[in-house]
Structures are given as C-alpha cells and as structure tokens.
Amino acid sequence: MTITGIVTKNIIRKLLAEEDYRSEVLALINAEFLQYVVGFFKRIVTVKLENEDVTVDWYEKEFLASSLSKEDIAHHAGLNIKTINNAYNTTKKEIVVEASVEHYHTLYKTINSLTEDTDVDVTLTIKFRGVSINLNINESLIVINTIAVKRSALRGGAWSTVGKRVEKPLMMTLCALFQVPTEYFDQRNLPTTARESDFYLFDNARTGYRCEVKLAGKGNPEAPDSIFARDGKVLVGDTISDTMKQEMENNNILWVELRTQEGYKRFEEVLNELSIPCKPYRGNFQEDLENILTKILSDDIQASVTPNISDPNSELLIELD
Prior knowledge:
Low-confidence stretches: 217-222
Number of strands: 6
C-alpha cells in the first residue's frame, strides 16, 4: 500500500493533537479497495466473454493461472498469503499456487453443495462500456469471497505499512519539539543488531536505548507487549492500558501515551530520565509542528522510512523560537 508524505504528516498531526488517526488509514483502505474492485470487475467481464465457449472452469483457468503474481492467485482462491505462510511456513510461488488451487477446489465443492439444496438464487450482473455479463450463484459467491479476502489483506497491510512509515518521523518530531541535538537520535549507521527496532535514542556515553512505537491502541493487547520481547526501554503509543503502564513501570520501561491531554509532553520526562539533553517545550505548537514536518517529510512517497535528519552545519534538526 502506498503511503505518501501527506498521509504520514496527517497521522502525526492527529497523534500529537490527541485525535483519532484511524480515519486516515481507513480512507487509504477504502480508496485502494474500491480501485481494486473496479479493476477486478473489468477483468471478469473481459475473461468471461473470452471464455464463453470454454467448458472448463473459466475462473480457475484465468484467475488461478501461474502467470499471475502469487498474491493475486491466493486472493482469487479466497486465501491470504499470510494464511499460506502460517500453514506451510513458506510463500514460495509453487507452494502458493498448489495451496490456492487446492483451496479453490474445496471452496467450489462447498459452494456447490450449499446451492444445490437451496431455493435462493443470486445473479451478479456486471456492465462495462455497454457490455453486460451475468454470473450465476456459484460464480457470484466465489467473486464475493475473493473481494472479501482482498479487503482483509488490504486492511492488514495498511495498518502494518502505516506503522512502519510513521514510527521514525513521529519520534524525530518529538525530539525536535524538545530540541534534542541530532547526534542523540541519529538513526544512521546503527549496529546490525539494532535495526529491527523502531527507533534508537543515545546518551552522552553513546548507550543506545531501544524505542518502540505502537499505534494499535487498547484493542490490540499484543502490540505493546513487543516492548518486553525486544528488550525495549521506551514505548510511545496512542493509547496504553493502565495494566500495561504498571507492568512497564515495574520493569523500568518508560512510556508516552499520546491520546491524553498534551500527552506528548511526557517525552521530556523520558529524555531527562535517560540523561539526554533537551529543553522544555513552551512554543506555538501548531506552528512549530508544521515547520518540523516540512523539514523531515516531503508530500510525496518517501523513499525511506528514515528521512535524512542530519545537517552537518546544525546541531539541531530545526531551531524553534
């Protein structure tokens, strides 16, 4: 899923303003999903017309063809790549094709058995440029199932992509607000063992503190738990349960909850606790935030999740009044 700098900026604005950022993600999912559905329906019309005289299953022949990408083959069969990976511990294309075809045959038999003993009839009619095709109940259910799987895949991919795109710019924004010198959060040339972390802060002794950014909220208890699994020192989240806060404090883990009144200001306490140079923030928040976001993010698609933050002629990412 494509995440532009504009979307990343909007999400960071909402996170730091204690607002729900999820509408930005849902808008992305809806736009990409609707675009996919229109394209999928156009292709169905073309394929159906080309296979009018074909006696074999036209859907399997055209939509599970090995020439397609493994992701498309899986979705067309009603499967998610992640499901195949969990079952077979691989996403090699030949395995994906084999698993998809097998699943499709099972699905097809199930649909046939259900529709044989029902008086319900469904006909899906698709019209494109004056051409109309009809899908019977079995074909319609297969197509509907494919669309549902695609929606689920897009949803999962969107939340994951947004997290990866937002975590580092968000942390850099917090560092800039509190005027942390760039040398204390420069993400270049990290040790190989450190690259799985969302972000690193450094003290004067160059001790690195692993930071995790979790935007899943209270509805996903697994998300903040990674702070323990990865031996993290700082957790920044949109919402954090009271139980999780207590558990982190018991384990000497620092946290910042953004969905509270001026929740971002707790980041100053984190910096002081880690003996990282900073200044209290008392500026014009909206104005300073816009200046910082303009500095670290363009409006286009970012080439990297770690924007260039180091200016050799400046100690700070951006000087605030």
